[in-house]
Amino acid sequence: MKTKVIILFALFLLSLNVAAQQISPFKENDRVVFLGNSITDGGHYHSYIWLYYMTRFPHMNLTVLNAGVGGDRAEEMFKRLDGDVFPKKPTVLITTFGMNDTGYFEYNQPGAEEYADKRVSESQEWYKKMEDRYKKLSGTKIVIMGSSPYDETAKIENNPFKNKNKAMMRIVDFQRESARANHWEFIDLNRSMTDINEREQKIEPSFTLCGDDRIHPDNDGHMVMAYLLLKAQGFAGKEVANIDIDASKAVVKSTSNCTVSDLKKTADGFCFDYLAKALPYPLDTIARGWGQKKAQVRATEVVPFMEEMNREILKISGLKGSYHLIIDKEEIGVWPAEEFAKGINLAALSNTPQYQQALKIMFLNEERWEIERRFRDYMWLEYTLFWKKDMLFQDNRESIQVLDENLDNGWVRAKRDLYAKAMFPEVRQAWQNEMDLLVSMIYKLNKPVTRKITLVRDK
After folding, report:
1. Under 8 Å between Cβ of 162 and 108
2. Mean pLDDT throughout 38-49?
């Protein structure tokens, strides 16, 4: 009977793990390509996800690539597969669409329901063509990702397009069914983010994860998107590291994802060597990207990222009084014995040497993101302007002439100078070389090193 109970409990735990892990974690040598619209094109969520892997799995060779183009629907994404997406040689292809597919202003005009039916049907027809291409891929895992929502409920200045998000959710529904039928993986960002919006709007009616235009998430929204995907990969509860020490006995009770060695008592405390297998996840405190107003760290106000995925716990029992925590000769702070006994989350302290090490990775990754954006602006011009004129990748003086004839379009005008450089393959190669160098530096600098942790009793 006892054995049966143990087996049933084990199966129960397994079922919980399966439910928690909707999306397989990325693995060694994966090339992960995110195919989407402007939310992917100009967004950070994929970069934040890669940063998690850079810091949590410092020895894993992984590449994450942006294949977003602003304004795209399923139709345009299908037409970009051969020229922009498949050449990236994805081993994992994550596809999201729906925002542009469903339209905008028409929802506040007569015939909105019929319009929604038409747009959803058109999106599904183009997606079926994409689905057929995906079925023929070999060696590529397909993940379908329901789009972040259009926020109709935030009390902000611009009037919402009524029931637009309902149409988007219909697209999410056929995406889910396609994933189920094809045994692909699926994640729905729409419902999860809508739930957060509605929850927070009960407290602050103007709150939104979807930006001032109700469409484009700010940095906090992109971090929520990253959190939701990482959680779907089963990373909730996975700690950076965990140390549990009994100071009264000078023994290490337990460790997780790290090693502790050379524990010694001193005249006024004790010290030990600490080598983690991961770095804490650094959260940016600056709003980055065009038009962004909120920093990445703001996401921690609405999702439990720190509690679930960013815990580097130092727990020490058997102390009396207060102690200075010193890491590599850097004073981190002073805490009473009670706080040490509860456990201090070092990942929440930006002044630790390991967090400072992780910040280097964050800033290098941000530089990589900035350069990758140039490629996406170049692709926007190729597929939004030149493709329609049968001039895809022509990249010559005639292309410049056509571009100059379309400068009444503000988006074209804003990208004119970039295209004058990007049209030359040597310039694009130089940009690629810069990104390769940045990634190489990241994977040289992201390896955890042994830290000397010292506790000194406060006098």
Report:
1. yes
2. 98
Report pLDDT for 18: 37
In the block, residue with structure tokens 């080598």: 275
How far is it, in rounded angstroms, from Cα 59 to Cα 56?
A: 9
Cβ neighbours for 50, distance < 8 A, ≥ 6 positions apart: 32, 62, 64, 365
Q: Which residue has the tokens 């909120």?
A: 294
What pLDDT was estimated at residue 164?
98
Each residue's pLDDT tens digit, 346-393: 999 999 999 999 999 999 999 999 999 999 999 999 999 999 999 999
Burial 358-385 (b: 16+ CB within 10 A, else e): bbebbebbbbbbeebbbbbbbbbbbbbb
In this prediction, residues 141-150 reach a mean pLDDT of: 98
Q: Are strands 30-36 and 92-95 parallel, antiparallel or unpaired?
A: parallel
Write the secondary structure of the chain as one string of H (helix), E (strand) and C (coil). Answer: CHHHHHHHHHHHHHHHHHHHECCCCCCCCEEEEEEECHHHHCCCHHHHHHHHHHHHCCCCCEEEEEEECCCCCHHHHHHHHHHHHHHHCCCEEEECCCCCCCCCHHHHCCCHHHHHHHHHHHHHHHHHHHHHHHHCCCCCEEEEEECCCCCCCCCCCCCCCCCHHHHHHHHHHHHHHHHHHHCCEEEEHHHHHHHHHHHHHCCCCCCCCCCCCCCCCCHHHHHHHHHHHHHHECCCCCCCEEEEEECCCCEEEEEECEEEEEEEEECCEEEEEEEECCCCCCCCCCCCCCCCCCCHHHHHHCCCHHHHHCCEEEEEECCCCEEEEEECCEEEEEEEHHHHHHCEEHHHCCCCHHHHHHHHHHHHHHHHHHHHHHHHHHHHHHHHHHHHHCCCCCCCHHHHHHHHCCCCCHHHHHCHHHHHHHCCHHHHHHHHHHHHHHHHHHHHHCCCCCEEEEEEECC
Report pTM: 0.94
The first and second tokens of residue 194, run together, are: 């809508």
